[in-house]
Amino acid sequence: MNFQRMEGEVKRKDVLARDEGNILIMSVVIVALLVATGMGYMKWASDEKWDSEYERATIQAYFVAQTGLIERGLTFLRTREPADLPQGEVQLLPGVVEGVGTHFRNRVARAPGGGGNLFQRTDSYDLYSTGQVTFKNHQMGNNSPKFIPVERVATMRARLRSFANYMYLTDMEVTEYNEIIWFWTPDTLYGRTHSNDFIGLKYSPTFYGPISTSKGEFRYYQPGNIHFEYPPVFDAPPVNFPKTAKTIRNNANPYITDDNGRLMTWIKLRGAAGIDIFQYPLGSVRAESGYQHVPVPNWQAMFVDGQCEIEGTLTGSLTIGSRGDMWLINDVRYSLANERTGDFNEDDPAVGILGLVSESDIIIDDNYFNGKENGWDVERGNWNRHSIVITAGMVALGSSFTFEHQNDDWEAYQGPVPDERGYIYLKGAVTQQRRGYVHRSNHVGTGYGKAYRYDFRFDRRPPPYYMEALDENGHGLFDIISWGELKPTH
Questions:
Q1: Domain check: are 105 and 246 in the same one?
Q2: Is 214 among the domain residues?
Q3: Which domain holds residue 450?
Q4: Residue at 34 is within a domain
Q5: Does residue 316 lie within any of the structural domains?
Q6: Which of 75, 87, 152, 219 is most buried, by CB atoms within 10 Å?
Q7: Positions in the chain whose pLDDT score sits under 70
Q8: Does the reported pTM lie above 0.90?
């Protein structure tokens, strides 16, 4: 009996010993699993924190790079005169965004040309900046770096603005007699419009392009349904108007003198036959004397150191400049432009391009072909008897784009009543130091209606040696064409 109890007790203890061993093993396994799970969770949490820190660093690096574009690249461009802008690549100093990161490898490079395309601008610049931000490494491991750098490269393309980027650009909106010249209901403008002065709006003009003024408001007279395709911009930086066409003067071939004011220069554009230049005594009857022939121009400028008269059709690319008044004595248009409206295919590279720049006035001559003595009403069906077609970018640095014989009371010559001369069919752009009249109420109506359209090719490339848009310090103004990222690196 006792022996049996003892044997049972021994068996029970063996079972307990085995169970305790199994429990110990299971405990070790459970602890190991808990440790592994904890380690995994810690690793997951560490990875999540690393990912979060990395994501934040990449965003910061991009904005640091953008800061480099502005503080180094744009500042470099905006503090130089156009003649001092680089022809190649320029390396710029690095910089620091305090408490965030650094930007370096800052550089500005002149953008590649258009591969022979006349209307691909070459006065554009590519800007580059690399932004770097570091973040603390929270991943486990003795060999992991304490801080990890993240880099991103920001890019920008900026284009030097010229007067040709504006369809309508003025320094002063009033005449020398302080009369406001209004934009009114018949006026429809398709390109960019800017004035350094107060812009006057009367009734219901239409602006399909951007409009800006360096003043804080517009002036209104009985405003109606004025249409702005884009919100107007007020207090815009003023555009400086130089006194001379320096770039055209310096690149002119030929450079024509007027014998100390004794000669008028008459320029006849003859399309594929080139250009004929005559000179005759100022004040006498126009005559084909003092002959000079110029072949079809290929990105050329000519300058007249005096007054000049211009007419005809252009083949090629040319800018004509003058010190004195520039008189338009008949149509001045491209050979491939419509002879009545001046319209042409902007995508056709054979059309050519023309700039007309006067350091004084650009004036529509009062003659038979331009509608003299009420030509619009007298012979409306005869297109050689009224109106004028102009396909060009025009700049009047000294004063205005205007017309002769406005029938003011003080003028010796007085035309008929009325004295309507047709329309100005302009496809191009107009820049003038002081806005000029092209139509008056004198004699119950004197002058021209406006049919103005912007030549959108000018927004890609201006005529040869055309006027750049400068600030008051003579530094170039730039438009940002694109802004992005070269590629992310880390």
A1: no
A2: no
A3: 241-467
A4: yes
A5: yes
A6: 152
A7: 1-50, 113-122, 138-145, 488-490
A8: no
